[in-house]
Amino acid sequence: MLQYLDIQTTAFTLWGYPISFIELTGTIFGLLSVYYAAKADILTWPTAIINEIAFFGLFFQVQLYADMFLQVYFFIATCYGWYYWKRGEVATTIYVMSLRQRGIYALVLLFGTLLLGQLVANIHLLWPKVFPLPASYPFADAFTTVASVMAMILLSRKRIENWILWMAVDVVAVILYFLKDIRLIAIEYIVFFMLCVFGFIHWKQQYESTRTG
User: Fold this and answer.
1) Staple partner for 30: which of 18, 20, 51, 75, CB 3.0–4.6 Å?
2) Which of 67, 76, 81 is nearest to 26 (CA)?
3) Which parts of the chain register pLDDT below 50?
4) 10: β partners
5) Which of 93, 95, 78 is nearest to 42 (CA)?
6) C-alpha to C-alpha distance for 116 and 68, rounded to whole angstroms
7) CA distance linking residue 154 with residue 19, whole number of Å
């Protein structure tokens, strides 16, 4: 069973690229999760949990440590979001943030990226037994991590701006994952970007319909 968690264990090869079981599992359930999120469907949460478990193991193996830690947060936030949506408090309500709230989030994103990037860049010096190899692209990795945390919070609270943050994450992630040669996940994030555009449009239509209705 454990061999299926190894990124070297190949499920099949596509156009000369070996796709591991762990990458394939994370990719499929990640796509399902974003699709259900775009539809404002509660199934986004259980599918996300499988995606997070798979990606935790994968990112450790490719030295994207910030993304690895992000999966732990995602797991906790997913459980919260699932509970929050299941309560039905905001089942049909979508909100838009104020200009002041957006400014605060932008500052948090900037300083959070700088702080986390510095930590991740030195993590192999701080805990060499756990992280024997230095982090890859620590600040780009930190940006996707911090922005994803913020986007997950906004998604769970049904703020429409979550889709803007997810789109920014997707653009950086596509470049990052191609550089790390995890091409299936890079392609997945291109699809994520398109789903985020769909999600933003769909949520915007719902928001406008509630205002005019």
Assistant:
1) 51
2) 67
3) none
4) 20
5) 78
6) 13
7) 32
